[in-house]
Amino acid sequence: MSEEESDDFGPAPVPADAAAPQPVQDNRRCDGANGAAGPGSEAAAGGAAVGSPDAAQAAQRRREFLMDMRGRFLCGEDKDYVDYSEIDADASLDDEEHVRRQQDQDAEDAYFDDVMEGVD
Q1: For residue 49, is it left (φ>0), alpha (ψ between -120 and 50) or beta?
Q2: Using an 8 Å Cβ cutoff, are 29 and 21 in contact?
Q3: Total-model pTM
Q4: Where is this region: Disordered (predicted)?
């Protein structure tokens, strides 16, 4: 792996003389209505003229690509390449604090469900 690459797929390094990249807004939705541009559209081409992109455009496109790939993964659209059931079953990947909060919330919900049943 070169110095320019990152093993965590974080943002690509941008030369100091490159223009500041514009933030990318993620409009991806997991219900299939993503509003994403199709191949060959101006948005899919980045709206730039044909030719090699400068460093800032390349960095921007890389961020957009990685954001799209993360979105596809999180929406479950990579099932041809990823065994999501294996990931779901791996407890070592769970955020223990989140699991604890969810268990507390579930217990609280069950308590109030029981209390409200007695009110009727």
Answers
A1: beta
A2: no
A3: 0.39
A4: 1-56, 89-120
Could you give the angle at the alpha carbon of 19 between the alpha carbons of 55 and 4, nearest 5°?
A: 35
Pick from 62, 65, 71: nearest CA to 29 = 71
Residue (of 44, 45, 47) closest to 35 by Cα position: 44
From the CB of residue 60, how many other CB atoms can be counted at a distance below 10 Å? 23
Q: Mark out the alpha helices in the chain (DSSP H runs).
A: 55-74, 84-89, 96-119
Q: Name the residue with higher pLDDT: 45 or 98.
A: 98
Q: How far apart are the first and last CA of the chain?
A: 66
114, amino acid identity: D
Q: How far, in Å, CA of 35 to CA of 14, rounded?
A: 29
Number of H helices and E strands in the chain, helices first, is 3, 0
Among 87, 89, 67, 69, residue whose Cα is nearest residue 77? 69
Give the model confidence (pLDDT) of 41-89 as tens digits. Answer: 444 445 545 556 688 899 999 999 999 999 999 899 988 888 989 988 8
